[in-house]
């Protein structure tokens, strides 16, 4: 393995070259005079702004608030979603009652509920977390339901024949079988959680990275605005990679196991 | 049969019941003043408001603006995304050039770029359509890319051996083979388009469903807020059902 490392490093650097080309083009474009420099700051200025932001507490604090909101909502949504999905797959009656509600709200743009939550809970973390929770809940329900529902009958029968208790059925048969789907749902929900947290901050909030970006935009501090956007893009990218890595570790036994390199 | 598990009809009845129960509970909670009417107007009031807004033309107008933006953005995203996806699948250089951007752009919350689009393209339709296109393009690129990568080799070899030109290859073999997956990607992108449109309108104003929703919320016109949310719910459901129907009945879109 260690012998392969330089090759992987080289490979990684080679992959980064297009980003460099992009930065060079950006530099040329903002210096060409075709676009007003105020609207498209030079990469150099944005980089300086980024360094400045990372030194101060502003971006780190607001980013922490946003991440707290999105992860809390995601966690609550994931736990509730797995339970509801599980119940839906196991109980026909429960499914009949819940299906129209899930089906109806699945395609509802969840950000439409933000004004409602502002009305109910005021401006702040509760509104953001509620919006994130709802947005994460539905993909979790649908994916868990699909995963549990497709458990092969043979597996269920064998487990029943071996005298598994209800609890064992759950932890040894249904949940492991649904895990790949649950992870898929979790990755979708992760994407939603950032979108909803930032949207609710942009619509009405006193803090958070969404508010910060909007504030910089309104006050015309465009290089800072670009730097703050870069921060959230990187944070989302890293979260997504961590999610892929966790999926890879937890599903190493599964045939769908994807290596973190190719995914 | 009736004694054991409920049949299909019984389950259907239960589905209807659960919707009715929610509506009835909503109406009852509002009428009994469990919540102030400001927070929860009765369902009947919301329905009346829906009727009023439809009659005076504000709701149809807002809906038309929002749907126009969502579909405009989705259209641009599909056009560029399909081309980019196929180019990435067929050409190593293009793949190398675009891959880092797709990898970085796909998981990023596109709504964070809204202020940039406002600065560059103003607060009206242009900035929203382009933001929607930007948000929708990544799932479409990825869907098209994996579809084009997964095309049966023998199809491509047969095409070449029959002397197909590049254009014929693209229009007769690659595009038709990718069609079902492209359509699935569009089905994924459609709710993204709606969410992005509504959110952008809520944040930046400039007309449309989201702008009116925010405006009514600021003036505490709760019936309007609820009426608009109900319409958004119905639109999301209707469009998704339409996509499923199309997928089922048009052979070219079936996976």
Overview of the structural elements:
The complex is a heterodimer of chains A (263) and B (255). With 263 residues, chain A is an all-alpha fold. Chain A has ten helices and no strands. Chain A has a single domain (45-250), classed as MetI-like fold (Orthogonal Bundle). Chain A is 79% helix and 0% strand. The relative contact order of chain A is 0.12. Chain B is mainly α and 255 residues long. Chain B has a single domain, classed as MetI-like (MetI-like fold).
Q: Layout of helices and strands, plus pairs?
A:
The complex is a heterodimer of chains A (263) and B (255).
Chain A (H helix, E strand, L loop, with lengths): L4 H28 L10 H13 L1 H34 L1 H15 L7 H8 L3 H25 L3 H9 L4 H38 L5 H10 L3 H29 L13
Helix pairs in contact in A: 2-10, 3-4, 3-6, 3-8, 5-6, 6-8, 8-9, 8-10, 9-10
Chain B lengths: L7 H24 L11 H13 L2 H33 L1 H14 L8 H8 L3 H25 L3 H9 L4 H39 L4 H10 L3 H28 L6
Briefly say what this structure is.
The complex is a heterodimer of chains A (263) and B (255). Chain A is mostly helical and 263 residues long.
CATH H-level superfamily title of chain B:
MetI-like
Radius of gyration of chain B: 23 Å
Instruction: Point out poorly predicted stretches of chain B.
Output: none
> What is the helix tally of chain A?
10
Task: Please outline the major beta sheet of chain B.
Answer: none
